[in-house]
Amino acid sequence: MLLTGADIVIRLLEQQGIEVISGIPGGANLPLYHALAKSRIRHILARHEQGAGFIAHGMARSTGRPAVCFATSGPGATNLLTAIADAKLDSVPLVAITGQVSTSLLGTDAFQEVDTYLMTLPITKHNFLVKNAADLLSIIPQAFSIAGSGRQGPVVIDIPKDVQLQEVEVGQGEALGTGTGTRKGTAFSLCRGEGPDEQANGTDGLRGWHEGQTQAPIIAEMINGSERPVIYAGGGVSVSGCHHDLSRLAHLNSIPVALTLMGLGSFPPDDPLCLGMLGMHGAPYTNIILEESDLLLALGVRFDDRAIGRAAAFCPDARIV
To answer: What angle do CA 244, 250, 251 make, to 5 degrees?
Structure first.
């Protein structure tokens, strides 16, 4: 079965359960749109690529799963930057797929060429510049794994136009994402989970689990020995679906809960133990209680400066776990 790089992208997006894509077509990503026209995936035509990025934001936040947006090269890619940067800071699982000039034109200041790879490197969890259509068979599943695992965030896949049009031979009856195939006699892997980032994520997750198991008795002893404990909960609680565990921890030990902006919704606001939001935009009494605490349990937070102010002066009398 002969498939173009664009066909492979769309079929793998279908395998990932993508039902809606937001974006804007352009010269460098037209092959993706031609392939998309044959798919069951619905397209939302944005009026600006930044809007396409934030539409994908909303889908990712509401479902908890990675969402996808499309943009063409040059101004299309640069218009996405704000949405990508916001996804990085707010831990939103976003997969941005951008068109790029043909590989032979890279680095020549061709029409609508910008270095999307280097531009997005500081504001993504990972990004890819695809030089071979066969590589898409592993890159697409890997991008979703990276975006949705650990601390979630954005991944950019930059695909030159000639790579989108490049044809790849895939064995008849062979499901994309499983098995092996060939392109001009070159073997390549179609297996999910073989990328180095996925292996690293899996190992790190296992290591963190074991460390948590061994530290639990120590933390329990610290809670029992404290007089003014406070839970400091953030977006990680919501993303991981641990709001029931948070509630159980708070009520079993009668510990008040302060929330970050991203953590709002992970603990009922009408609960007697809820202190509301902390920090610059929080209630004064919440910050006073934190300042007087002797133990701070930090769950799913990143100690943002808007939440804690000066790090050296935050919870001066508390042990922070």
So the answer is: 90
